[in-house]
UniProtKB/TrEMBL annotation:
Species the sequence originates in: Lactarius akahatsu
Lineage: superkingdom: Eukaryota
Gene3D superfamilies per UniProt: Ankyrin repeat-containing domain (1.25.40.20)
Record has Repeat as a keyword: yes
UniProt xrefs under PROSITE patterns: ANK_REP_REGION, ANK_REPEAT
Intervals holding ANK repeats: 1-30, 31-63, 64-96, 97-129, 130-168
Alphabetically ordered keywords of this record: ANK repeat, Repeat
InterPro entries: Ankyrin_rpt, Ankyrin_rpt-contain_sf, NF-kappa-B_inhibitor
Name of protein: Ankyrin repeat-containing domain protein
Amino acid sequence: MPLHLASSRGNAEIVKVLLQHGTDFHAQDQKDLTPLHLASLTWSVETVLLLIEYGAGVNAQAQAHLTPLHLASYRGNPKTIELLLQKGADVHARDRDQSTPLHMASSCGNPEPVRRLIQHGADVNAYNQRHSTPLHQALRVALSSQAPMVNVVSLLLEHGANVDVEDDEGWTPFQIASSMGQCCEITQLFSDYCVIVE
């Protein structure tokens, strides 16, 4: 599928030629991904915009009910996220696991996608099937990979993320942060946050 291939590579010139020649931009591959889904995983905002201008559905769902916004959020691309939201993407869309784009963005380590989604009304306390919130997601990534997540965690806390909600394993974000050790920036952030809230 040439349009899928060009879109997955963010090649706006080839995408434009294919669209001008009537290639079906709604076509789905074996995973139900449209060209817009694939373009949303690239850093080519131009390719995403072209597909939208030709009528590609910003809320199309692939397998697992993933939307282009879920994929752009997973990739951590703030410009694509902003474009999709401006063109009508649903900031509250849920995948099969009931995760929102904010769950995806909270795992990428970059605070800017998180900020954009929150500015467009994303719920910082939305929970998925595992009763995991975006804050749970960010903390689990920090715990498992030592990724620099302090800015993402700070942003979620600033916007009212609940530190006491339990996931389906009984863990709260506060407990996860506490398990990181006293020297961890995130543990200090939680200590500061709890003092401010009290």
